[in-house]
Specification:
- The complex is a heterodimer of chains A (144) and B (219).
- Chain A is mainly alpha-helical and 144 residues long.
- Chain A has two domains: 36 residues; 77 residues, Cytochrome C3 (Alpha-Beta Complex), CATH 3.90.10.
- Helices cover 42% and strands 3% of the residues of chain A.
- Chain A is built from four helices and two strands.
- The longest helix of chain A is centred in the first third of the chain and has 32 residues.
- The radius of gyration of chain A is 26 Å and the shape is elongated.
- Chain B is mostly helical and 219 residues long.
- The longest helix of chain B has 28 residues.
- Chain B starts with a helix and ends in a 6-residue tail after the last helix.
- Classes of the chains: A mainly alpha (144), B mainly alpha (219).
- Chains A and B meet through helix 3 and helix 4 of A and helix 1, helix 6, helix 9 and helix 10 of B.
Chain lengths: 144, 219
């Protein structure tokens, strides 16, 4: 066989190998997607997000008592703070009123921190400070 | 781990954007200095009128002759370049993070729509890779670097897509998403991604050469 013909056959087989290889990778990829995390993890305690008319994400996973036990938080005011005239009121806590009483869906002149931003910052700022706990979107807003 | 995430989603974002913007400015200065040193006669026929005319002609879909000759490639290319900017800038997850950091926000794409547009971007990149491999005259000009650049653009979109759906390795996927996005931004001034500022210069030169010297169109 003439050498240039041999070369073209080599190229064809190489091409075929490449196609098979790419096909195999795509197959693995689909298989992994198909068999991963399709079931909803059961018994997840989520925050009530019914205030949001059209929530873009499922409510954040949050088990209040378990969280505070692990985080060793006993003072309610650590999270349930009270602000007056944009200043933190020490030794007062707000666990009896819903967060949405002060934090409205959109920022207002009185309170520039909207409800979703308040939640996001309340959780993430502390988790970054303590270098513990979830900080990425989907770590709390786990798919339903 | 949170300290690391804080770093890549905090200071590293600033570093990436600074290198991207300052790098492009620096590159622009270098190019102009180079022109002044070696080809300053270009200025004898370079005009704003012919430069802008050429830039706008080539920004108008299917006005230039060569875009009419490859309608499939140019359609995909136009859509890809638009989505490359629209999807990340108007993605709700990105706007939420910007809102938390700077108290500003703007209109967001619907998540379902953004999901489809992301797939279109990835498919366009696959098309570009196949084209580089299949079209002889393009293959001749292609080196491994061109495939590498396609992969670098694809990675933020692929990892973003997988992270959004929370298919597997969620945390690792978001970290890969952030880092690959930053790598892409950082590489813009140092790679052929810099065509985002060099291409208009090419048009200015060609537009003026054709328009002002040969009195012809360059599109």
């Amino acid at each position: 066989m003439k050498p240039w013909k041999r070369k073209s056959i080599n190229r064809e087989t190489k091409m075929k190998q490449k196609v098979i290889f790419i096909g195999f990778i795509l197959f693995l990829f689909t298989a992994v997607i198909a068999f991963s995390n399709t079931d909803e993890p059961e018994g997840l305690e989520r925050l009530d997000n019914s205030v949001f008319e059209n929530p873009h994400r499922p409510g954040a996973v949050f088990a209040h008592d378990d969280h505070n036990e692990i985080a060793q938080i006993e003072d309610c005011a650590v999270c349930h703070h009270v602000y007056e005239d944009k200043k933190l009121v020490e030794d007062e806590s707000s666990e009896d009123s819903p967060c949405s009483e002060c934090h409205s869906l959109k920022p207002t002149e009185e309170n520039s921190i909207s409800l979703s931003v308040a939640y996001h910052k309340q959780c993430k700022d502390c988790h970054f400070e303590e270098n513990k706990g979830p900080v990425l979107c989907g770590e709390c807003h786990i798919k339903e | 781990m949170n300290a690391f995430i804080d770093f890549i989603m905090g200071p590293m974002v600033w570093v990436a954007f600074l290198i991207f913007i300052l790098g492009l400015i620096f590159k622009m200065v270098l190019i102009i200095k180079d022109i002044n040193a070696r080809e300053s006669y270009v200025y004898s026929y370079l005009t704003w009128k012919h430069s802008l005319r050429s830039i706008f002609a080539w920004m108008t879909p299917f006005l230039p002759q060569s875009t009419k000759q490859s309608p499939v490639f140019y359609s995909i290319s136009y859509i890809f370049h638009l989505l490359l900017f629209i999807v990340p800038i108007f993605l709700m997850s990105h706007i939420v993070l910007i809102n938390e950091a700077f108290q500003v926000s703007w209109v967001a794409l619907d998540d379902g729509l953004a999901d489809i547009l992301t797939v279109i971007v990835i498919l366009a990149l696959v098309f570009f890779a196949i084209r580089r491999h299949m079209v002889p005259e393009v293959k001749y000009l292609t080196s491994y670097k061109d495939y590498l650049l396609l992969i670098i653009v694809a990675l933020p979109f692929i990892t973003g897509f997988l992270a959004y759906h929370q298919f597997f390795f969620y945390k690792a996927m978001v970290i890969a998403h952030v880092i690959s996005g930053e790598i892409m931004l950082i590489l813009i001034p140092f790679s052929r991604f810099s065509h985002m500022i060099v291409a208009p210069l090419t048009r200015a030169y060609m537009g003026s050469e054709f328009g002002n010297v040969r009195h012809a169109k360059d599109w």
